[in-house]
Amino acid sequence: MQAATPSTNNPATSGRTPLPTVGTWRSRGAMPAFTADEILAAVSHVRRPAFVVADPRGHLGVAPEGDLIGPDQVNGVPTFPLVASLPAIWPEWLGDRSFGEAHHLRFPYVAGAMANGIATTDLVIAMARAGMLGFFGAAGLTPTRISEGLDRLEAALGGTGLSWGSNLIHAPNEPQVEKATVELYLKRKVRRVSASAYMGLNPMVVRYAYSGVRELPDGRIHRDNYLFAKLSRPEVARRFLAPAPAEILDGLVAAGELTADEARLARRLPVAEDVIVEADSGGHTDNRPLPALFPMMVAVRDEMTATHGYQRPIRLGAAGGLGTPTAVAAAFQLGAAFVLTGSVNQAALESGLSDHGKKLLCTVGLADVVMAPAADMFELGVKVQVLQRGSMFGVRAQRLYDVYSSYDGLHAIPADVKQRLEREVFQDTVENIWAGTEAFFAERDPHEVERAKRDPKHKMALVFRWYLGLSSKWAIAGTDGRQLDYQIWCGPAMGAFNDWVKGSFLEPPANRTAVQIARNLLEGAAVVTRAQQLRAAGVPVPAAAFQFAPRPLK
Length: 554
Fold this sequence. Notes:
Elements: E1 13-14, E2 17-18, E3 23-26, H1 36-43, E4 50-54, E5 60-63, E6 67-69, E7 79-86, H2 97-103, E8 109-111, H3 121-129, E9 133-136, H4 143-157, E10 165-169, H5 175-187, E11 192-196, H6 203-210, E12 214-215, E13 221-222, E14 226-231, H7 234-240, H8 246-254, H9 260-266, E15 274-278, E16 283-284, H10 290-308, E17 315-319, H11 325-333, E18 338-341, H12 355-361, E19 369-373, E20 383-387, H13 393-406, H14 415-426, H15 430-444, H16 446-454, H17 456-477, H18 493-501, H19 514-536
Parallel strand pairs: 8-9, 8-18, 9-10, 10-11, 11-14, 14-15, 15-17, 17-18
Antiparallel strand pairs: 1-2, 3-6, 3-7, 4-5, 4-7, 12-13, 16-20, 19-20
Helix pairs in contact: 3-4, 5-6, 11-19, 13-17, 15-16, 15-17, 16-17
């Protein structure tokens, strides 16, 4: 917006106070909008410049493109004092342009990596073809399943120049699976990885971040791999925004997993140059409000950039609670280089969630979510945000954690408590559950079985994790008889989204494609941004201008 400067000769007045002007606007045929209905229509034309003008009574309105002239260029054509000029706003331009340039994207929009393949390859492919970025939900899948997903992504997108990525989740209970996933990504040349649930750095994530780093002939440093660090705490952000610790780099060199030259260059680069600032979201979350969290992360980014003398941009994206255009617009106003959505995509056609699960999500209200114990970090007391409406998972999972906290092992659980768990939660005997769990870990990670034999409390945790782990898979498969046990990760954004799309073409589940969800959120964010700009310039913008109605977009 071009700032206005006060002018005592301004012919337009508002009461006794002269309006500040920056020149004169002359019509090319179309006249300015001054009524509420006219202004409402003008707000939606975001891809064209807009001009704030005043009528003879000092009322402000919105004018389309015209001529900016001097006082001697009127020639009988209608003119109005110009108060402010606004450039065009394209949805593509809402974020940091360096994000699109670095990742070869049209839009500053990311579909997050919903675990257990809920963020399917179909979803990732659709996002890529629309000029956006999607991450395959690899968390919870075996390396074999991940490899199959990569096969399909490469077959559909290889050689197209379109960008896509996959997920790497911190697995403190299964470090070998985490390591195997990193090795798979390096072998298959997966160039974009979303790292989630990390509370610090470990050799696996550092190895991925710096593999392939090299110095170009002109002195610039090139990175083969882009690590997107999904973070919700400033103290953790400091670790990812600093060069990796020397002891980790030296250990990787000694193990032959980084070259000495890669480690040398790594000391000049942060671990991650794309950070996803995760506020109150579905799944793992600290429930932080984005307006409180994001500015703190910006301050950490700026401090680390100054401390380490980085010359390359570090981009901060916003995630969590983004279910409406207004929320997305607010994220960009906070300084987000891009936005990431998760909960709202679970109800999309391309989502791997079962039809029953999607229908449940389409009925969610703002408060229909609850925190429940997490399967992957159960013993640590870590929680995830899940759907409460239509599911008993949250209550039953918490009951398991309460029992785990109260007793030293399965043998110590009172008979009546054990029987109630078997009847209401497991639908099987504890002995049968342990037999299946033992067989599973004997193949996946035999160390877990050995530890369970030594530690009764760990054995109890593995049995309880059986329920926590399978509940999300029941929701994906649509398992009959287990509907009340569905674990569906969900944040308040889902309720806000459902309220926004009510009565529109996006209300029916059959119309909720990931791309239409994304395009409408971005288009609406551009309209809301324009409405706020006009309001800040003094135009009496109707409240309806901030309520963008979803529509089919191409």
